[in-house]
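Mods, move this if it's the wrong board.
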Amino acid sequence: MSDARRPLRAGPGQGPGGVPRAIAISPILSARYRAEDLERIRAAAPGARIVTLSVEGLADGPIDDVEVLLRGWLSRDAFARLLVRAPGLEWVHSATAGVEDSISPALRGRRLVVTNARGVFSRPIAEYVMTMILAISRRLPELMELQREHTWQPLQARELRDVTLGIVGLGSLGRAVASLAGAFGCRVVATRRSGAGGSAAMPEAAVTDAEADEFRLPFPPRIDRVLGPEGLPELLAESDFVVLAAPLTSDTENLIDDAAIAAMRPGAWLINVARGGLVDERALLRGLRDGRLGGAVLDTFRQEPQLPDSPFYDLPNVIVTPQTSWSSGRVLDRSIELFCDNLRRFADGRPLRNIVDPDAGY
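Not the wrong board. Structure tokens:
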């Protein structure tokens, strides 16, 4: 049977007890491998051989019998080469939530199972979003500037119960943001791909597997109104803060363009913690410079790192951070735990967590 016609499957593996014969891993969140992470992977798949890869794809052993890939830092070219050199590969786990670099024509042709890290980063990113909303609402940037000028000038702030927060994308990250925002009393409006659903009080029972245990949301997310994708202009028009939490797909690329910025409430802030490709950066610059927008918080860009001459650095109404919203001392442990849980499921022939739909892109 050709690769294109082979049934979609993931497990059990060809190693002892259904574990994979070999597992290839590339560095996750760091250039170094932690010894304790390798031990956890070995314990989850006893008898499997572990092959470590460099960012460039250099392997410390044969990869022809690799059945599972934990893809952390691995270039597109190296990933493409690995697909050719690992004919037994069945399952690719992305250590990031975004999988646009993994869903290639070659991967589709092989009908490989892809899982991602949905839920692993949601809590720290949601805390980052609320940090920025609080700082802007309490006018922290202006207060710090007044401090540098040795000027005593009280400024009027805004209570978060008077804030409408628009969340574009109601996946794991969007729900985590809604959870924290609701605790502060924000009014929350959201869009999601599956369409409108009225008011959405999401009980903890509706939380996905990836948010179980330590991933669990601190409060059930309360969303005042859920709109379909066609409701984006409505969300933009009534939101004081617009948070981008959607995946990057062919449908969402350049989602925030001139028309979207024109639809935004005057003085609103854009917060991008998803993917740089969601935003037409030239259109955003125009909106920031002409005063249409109050400002932007940008943790991700099309080009990373941003060059020193990037105009975003110098705009007074922009907060630039170097893709640090996800950063937490807990995320690497959660990443490895999710992968190890899926390794055990793979060996048992049970459904894997966080399976990605290649057609949807997430």
